[in-house]
Amino acid sequence: MLRYLSRRLLQAVGVLWAAYTVSFLVLYALPADPVRLLAGGDASDVTADQLAELREQYGLDQPLIVQYFRQLADVLHGDLGTSIVTGRPVTEILAEAIPPTAQIAVVGFVLAVVFGGGIAFFATYTRNRALSDFLVGLPPLGVAVPSFWFGLLLIQWFSFTIPLFPAVGDGGPLSVVLPAITLAVPTGAVIAQLLTKSLDTTLREPYIDTAWAKGARRPRVHLRHALRNAALPALTMTGLIIGQLLAGTVVTETVFSRPGIGRVTASAVQQQDIPVVQGVVLFAATVFVLANLAVDLVYPLLDPRIELKPRRAPKAAVVPAGSPA
Is 63 helix (H, G, I), strand (E, B) or coil? Predict the structure, then answer.
């Protein structure tokens, strides 16, 4: 177990290093000059000496390879750099943005699991063909509906027509409800699609017939025998689902005018604030890696046949001397 965990942690560090390196190469290869943009677009009122001073201040006058290793060393010491636009440390900006994003992301993920799992369960459990077809048709609709349009629809219904929840801002628990539902719809639709297909396949397995033959009742067969194994494919997608949630916060936080990682990302990309964009990329990669690590550790709880042991190459068969080839 300890050896397996050590290998997975090393792989996680490799993924984070790759994400940082790729984002550095992509962002610093942009043709635009963030210092000139900071100075006022065409920088007509700023002298060349002032621009050179700003580049020196942010280390942008150094060769690319020097910038890379200097910034990588800073990251290893927990320093993600300083925002070119605001002059604030990137870690401070992220620390302020993460809590409001975490609120809607966690609530949205729970709602997505409840909605998606519920739709998949009842679509495969019910014997009413029309109801089953209706439930199976909901996930594609949830994926197809644009998040910004659904968010605006919720604001129109539940903030203006029926004033139950605030329309915009971060004003307490009630302000989390509508953004979380907006995030949960596409994510829950993906979970429902995966789980419905997996449940439908699992219910045709021979061991399910064995359970029926032993006299197991319908809820027990569905919940204990089928759902446990059918949940593995959906669990495998957890890392991607969390990535989808983080990506969805850009649109959701913009529609609901909430602070958070999504707003910070949109603003940093628009202003070409490279240190902040890199900090967001590193944060998203860290969340993705931790989510996948947690999934790997949960696998054996759902399926005892899965062992947390590193894979080993099969040993070559020893051929006795003098035996025919």
Answer: coil
Q: What is the pLDDT of residue 324?
A: 47
d(CA 133, CA 14): 45
Task: Give the pLDDT of residue 306.
Answer: 60
CB 243 within 8 A of CB 284: yes
Per-residue pLDDT for 48 more than 50?
yes
Three-state secondary structure call for residue 273: coil
| 3-class state of residue 89 by DSSP | strand
CB 178, CB 165: distance < 8 Å: yes
Q: What distance in Å separates the CA atoms of residue 304 and residue 325, rounded to the nearest whole number?
A: 40
Buried b / exposed e across 167-181, counting CB within 10 Å, b at 16+?
beebeeeebbbbbbb
**Structure tokens, 41:** 């677009």
- Going by C-beta distance under 8 Å and a sequence separation of 6 or more, which residues neighbour residue 60? 34, 35, 54, 67
The identity of residue 203, as a single letter, is: L
Q: Where are the alpha helices (DSSP H) in the chain?
A: 2-28, 34-40, 48-57, 64-76, 90-125, 129-144, 147-155, 174-202, 206-213, 218-220, 227-236, 238-255, 261-271, 274-302
Give me the amino acid identity at 181.
Answer: I
What distance separates the 2 farthest-apart alpha carbons in the chain? Answer: 89
Q: Is the dihedral of CA 149, 151, 152, 157 positive or negative?
A: positive
Cα distance between residue 249 and residue 258, in whole Å: 10
- Would you say how long the chain is, in residues? 325
Check whether 78 has a pLDDT greater than 50. Answer: yes
- Closest-CA residue to 91 (of 76, 78, 108, 72): 78
pLDDT in tens, 200-259: 888 888 888 888 887 778 878 777 778 877 777 777 777 677 777 777 777 888 888 888
- How far apart CA 158 and CA 209 sit, in angstroms, is 47
